Amino acid sequence: MPLVRLERISKRFDLGEVPVPALSDVSFELDAGSSVAIIGPSGSGKSTLLGILGCLDTPTSGSYRLAGEEVGGISPAELADLRCRRFGFVFQNFNLLPRLTALENVELPLAYARQAPTMRRAKAAEMLDRVGLSNRMSHYPSQLSGGQQQRVAIARALVNQPELILADEPTGALDTTTGHEILSLLNGANSDGTTVIVVTHDPKVAANMRRTISLSDGRIAGDTNRDLSAGRLPLLPAAVL
Ligand SMILES: Nc1ncnc2c1ncn2[C@@H]1O[C@H](COP(=O)(O)OP(=O)(O)OP(=O)(O)O)[C@@H](O)[C@H]1O
Ligand SMILES: [Mg+2]
Fold first, then answer.
1. Which of 124, 148, 184, 216 stands the most exposed, by the fewest C-beta atoms within 10 Å?
2. Whose CA is nearest to atom 7 of ligand 1?
């Protein structure tokens, strides 16, 4: 059974008199453990698709099965629960909570999952250590560089051991070297078995994913696989980040 199965997913936004079709008849399947780049021009529907995949938004029509279960039939409360159990999210602008320290930000998904404070503190600290930030745990987001903030965001996305990481332009606000560090963390998560879906404008990021789905005007315009055995970025040990 595929982890994700989209069948003729469409999304229309009805704002004024003219409805905007953001996605039209999008169908594809993803197996657990895959890595996928979603590319396409601005406005082609990439973030809309990621929002639907992450159960942050619902399609106007079509079917989305996650591990065999029809997402459209799940109640809002169960959906919230499913989001925090199965998904980790990473955004272009990091989206950390400014009044929480790095450690507290990483603890959040565990708090939502109702884990005991000592346990969550330990897990969050271990995850920050893995992304090379053991010396920044008590810093607030405003006291961290962009790359450091994104590493905190990745630690937060991974701390609950999600099946899927969904990232929208995770390197878009970072310089090349820092973007490379973030990419190798995502590659590392994928090597550990996490399914990674990344929206990106950057061909280098796409070249690190096994599959690339391109969108144009809300439709799938291309779907290609690549052999990564030779070309993936080397994994950087957290210590050198
Ligand atoms: N909440 C919304 N209300 C109305 N229209 C929307 C909404 N969100 C997206 N759209 C429209 O849907 C289309 C797809 O938007 P989307 O944000 O998915 O594009 P994108 O591919 O992520 O673009 P970018 O690369 O600029 O981030 C656009 O025409 C956009 O204007
Ligand atoms: Mg977008």
1. 216
2. 13
